[in-house]
Every structure is written in structure tokens, then in C-alpha cells.
Amino acid sequence: MGSVRPLVAADVRRAAAIERAAFGDPWPAQAFVELLGQPHVRAYAVEREDGSLAGYAIASVAADQGEVLNLAVDPACRRRGLGHALLDALIAMFRREGVVAIFLEVRQSNEGAIRLYQQAGFRPVSTRKRYYRYPTENAVTMALDLAADAQKG
Predict the structure, then answer these.
(1) Domain that holds residue 126
(2) Which residue of the set 19, 44, 47, 117 is catalytic?
(3) Which one, 90, 95, 102, 147, has least CB within 10 Å?
(4) What's 121's domain CATH number?
(5) Where are the alpha helices (DSSP H) in 57-138?
(6) Cβ neighbour number for residue 28 with a 10 Å cutoff
(7) Whether 117 is catalytic
């Protein structure tokens, strides 16, 4: 499994290329640049064994709420645990920052991503009709209740 580290400005070009390969309606490179400059944004990269960027995750923290804004792994590097590594890093960061609930949206047809999130404890909470473009598709809003997890363990 690759190593996880902070995503930095030098990674933007490669992250944008992964974004284009992974999504039908990709964020432009400038969106990454702008997000990395925001104080509420947390971003991580996962590397291949050779040190090159294989994926990234971007999240925001507002008070005790967290949101996974984007998580992508290079299609050539999938099914190697890299998405799990990124999601684990995000959840650990959210816990350190006192977040009690994490939210995200995922394409309804993205079974692999939904499975990844469910394995981490996320549960579907609603559907957002026609949320995605290119192609138009519903989003499943999912949530992870960290406060309930803390009470259990």
C-alpha cells in the first residue's frame, strides 16, 4: 500500500490529471489550487511505490462537521488499498480535529466507492436528484457518525 502525505501545490498538475481520468465532470486544476489555499481544507496524497502521485483526498472541516469533497485514485492503481488509505487518513484527521459527523456525496452508480465508504462505516442518509452532470445522475449522501463511534468504544 502507498504512503499517505499532505497534498501540496506541486501535486496539482498530477492530481488534476487523475481527476480527469476518474470523473466525467472533473474539477479544473485551478480548483485544486484555490482549495489548497483555504484554511478549512485538508488534503492528502497517496503515492505509488516509486513516489509518484496515485491518488488524493480533499476534505473540509467546519466546526464539528466534516465533508469529504473529493477522493480519487488513478484508475491504473485501483484495487490496491489506496482509496482505503486515503479515507483512513481523512477519518483520523477528522477525529483529531473534533469532528462528530462526516458527510459526502457519491454517484449512485459508483458501487466501488459506495462499498469503500460503507466498509469505513458510512451509511446512506438521502438522495440528491440530478446532483451530478456529465452524465446527469443522482448522488447518494452518506454520513459517518463519529460521536456514536466514540460512545461505543
Answers:
(1) 4-152
(2) 117
(3) 147
(4) 3.40.630.30
(5) 82-96, 111-119
(6) 11
(7) yes
Would you state the cell numbers that stand for residue 88, as one nine-digit string?
483512513
| Structural domain count of the chain | 1
Annotated active-site residue 47? The verdict is no
Largest CA distance in the chain: 42
CA 100-102-106 angle, to 5 degrees, is 170
Q: Say if residue 73's pLDDT is above 60.
A: yes
Contact 46, 73 (CB under 8 A): yes
Residue tagged active-site, from 19, 47, 56, 105: 105
Per-residue pLDDT tens digits for 7-66:
999 999 999 999 999 988 899 999 999 999 999 999 999 998 888 899 999 999 999 999
